Amino acid sequence: MQSSSLKDIKSDLKNCTQEELLELTLRLLRFKKDNKELISYLLYESENDFVFIETCKEEMEMAFQQINKSNFFFIRKGIRKTLSLTKKNIRYAQKKNIEIELLLHFCRLLIEFRPSVKNNKVLMNTLETQGRMIKKAISTMNDDLKHDYGVLMEETFEKLH
Fold first, then answer.
1. pLDDT tens digits for the chain (161 residues)?
2. Whole-number Å distance between alpha carbons of 92 and 121
3. Coil, helix or strand for 49?
4. Backbone angles phi, psi at 69, to 5 degrees
5. Cα torsion for 137, 87, 118, 69, to the nearest 10°?
6. Own/partner pairs for 127-130, CB < 8 Å, 24+ apart?
7. Planar angle of CA 9, 15, 16, nearest 5 degrees
8. Beta strands per DSSP E along the chain
9. Whole-angstrom Cα distance, residue 26 to residue 43?
10. With a threshold of 0.70, does the pTM exceed it?
């Protein structure tokens, strides 16, 4: 089955009644956990960015604590899983300030992680990639926020050296 274009779907949704929209939404929610999580974010958490950021940070910290430290294979696997969870939360929010805050926190946790990530090229590459993404997101902010987030980024990556 081939899906219709977004434009076609949008125009057809405009013609639906409220009851039909509700039924379509509920049906969509049954199929994928991500859809349910996104709707939950939009309905309950999108109003208060601070609470959402703090909740995500707590989830990240718990995920880092649960990483199996027996060897670097399991460490990399756990860190990738934590990063994908972080990226999913960033996609839900679609706000640059939330993206910067969460990625900075992820990098802080990764830098403070023991055994040190300095000993592993893959994890250092992950850290550098996230640093570039933070810089890119910061470049889109207004000047005051650019400065503030730039200082936070410098403080975070200073710990690495």
1. 788 898 998 999 999 999 999 999 889 888 888 889 988 998 998 999 999 999 999 999 999 999 999 998 999 999 999 999 999 999 999 999 999 999 999 999 999 999 888 888 999 999 999 999 999 999 999 999 999 999 999 999 987 77
2. 30
3. helix
4. -95, 15
5. 160
6. 127/160, 130/83, 130/103, 130/106
7. 90
8. none
9. 14
10. yes
